[in-house]
Amino acid sequence: MERAVALFSQTPNMGSWYHQLEIRMPRPEVLEAIKEAESEADSRVEAAQNEAEEIISEAESEAEELVSTAESEARAHREERLESAREEIEAERESIIETGREERDELVERAESRIDEAVELALERFTEAVHAQT
Predict the structure, then answer these.
(1) Residue 10 contacts by C-beta under 8 Å, 6 or more apart in sequence?
(2) Are 21 and 6 in contact (CB under 8 A)?
(3) Alpha-carbon gap, residue 113 to 124, rounded angstroms
(4) Judging by beta carbons within 10 Å of its beta carbon (0-12, 13-18, 19+), is residue 25 exposed, middle or buried?
(5) CA–CA separation, 129 vs 93, rounded Å?
(6) What is the rounded CA–CA span in Å between residue 107 and residue 101?
(7) Which candidate, 53, 55, 51, places its Cα nearest to that of 43?
(8) How many Cα neighbours within 13 Å face the side chain of 58?
(9) Segment 6-31, tens digit of pLDDT
(10) Using CA of residue 63, residue 68, residue 69, residue 73, what is the dihedral sign?
(11) pLDDT category, 71, cuts 50, 70, 90?
């Protein structure tokens, strides 16, 4: 298909450029070429819009996936921190219990070591009380 060809010439009388358009295509073919160009432009615009919609859809899906992954990681991190805190609390609890047992054992040991003294003291006071009455 032939295209329009522009011929440029300078008119010596005017001193400026005049554009003369010589058309080598019949008028209906020119209109058909214009329609084809418009149709091609419309197709390109539609393809670009479709591509843009696809890109947006993919971006939205990716964003949703990122949010989901971040939420999942946050939950896992929270659970790890809670478990760590529980372990620390349990360790502290065991330490307190062990300290209490050690203190109790020391008290029992000291009390047992003083039983003989306590019995002797009780007998002395009882004997003194009995002698005081007689």
Answers:
(1) 16, 17, 18
(2) yes
(3) 18
(4) middle
(5) 49
(6) 10
(7) 51
(8) 6
(9) 434 444 444 443 344 444 556 788 78
(10) positive
(11) very high
Residue pair 29/51 in contact (Cβ under 8 Å)? The answer is no
* 129: amino acid identity, one letter: A
C-alpha to C-alpha distance for 116 and 118, rounded to whole angstroms: 5
Token pair listed for 46 = 């539609």
**Pick from 39, 43, 33, 41: which is nearest to 3 by CA?**
33
- DSSP character at residue 14: T
pTM assigned to the model: 0.46
- CA pair distance 40, 43, nearest whole angstrom: 5
CA distance from start to end of the chain: 150
